[in-house]
Amino acid sequence: MTSLTLYTKLETLPPNLKKEAKNFIESLIKKTNKQKEQQINQPKFGSLKGKITLSEDFDDSLDVFNDYM
């Protein structure tokens, strides 16, 4: 549906339905903006690659647990 077709149909509505259509369109715009924000704020898989490192002695036993081994 083209914008002109939509505008033509909108112009045939009475004023109270035009207001309802306007409110509906505004709610659709808000919904779209929220979806875009969620997509922007959602982290991408692998985005922390190379930023987290483990120390060389990560797998070594801790001295605190020597009594239990």
Report on the structure:
It comes from Pedobacter alpinus. Pfam families: DUF2281. Residues 5-68 form the DUF2281 domain. InterPro entries: DUF2281 (IPR018739). By secondary structure, the chain is mainly α. Helix content is 52%, strand content 0%. The chain has helices at residues 3-11, 15-41. The radius of gyration is 29 Å and the shape is rod-shaped.
Which short descriptors sum up this protein?
69 residues; mainly alpha; 2 helices; 52% helix; 0% strand
Approximate helicity band? 40-55%
Query: What percent strand?
Result: under 5%
**What are the secondary-structure elements, in order, as H or E?**
HH
Indicate the mean pLDDT: 87
SS element count, helices = 2
Uncertain residue segments: none
Radius of gyration: 29 Å
- Report the oligomer: single chain
Q: How does the helix and strand content classify structurally?
A: mainly alpha
The profile of the biggest β sheet is: none
- Coarse shape: rod-shaped
* Distance N to C terminus: 74 Å
How many strand units?
A: 0
Protein name: DUF2281 domain-containing protein
InterPro entries: DUF2281 (IPR018739)
Organism: Pedobacter alpinus
Domain DUF2281: 5-68
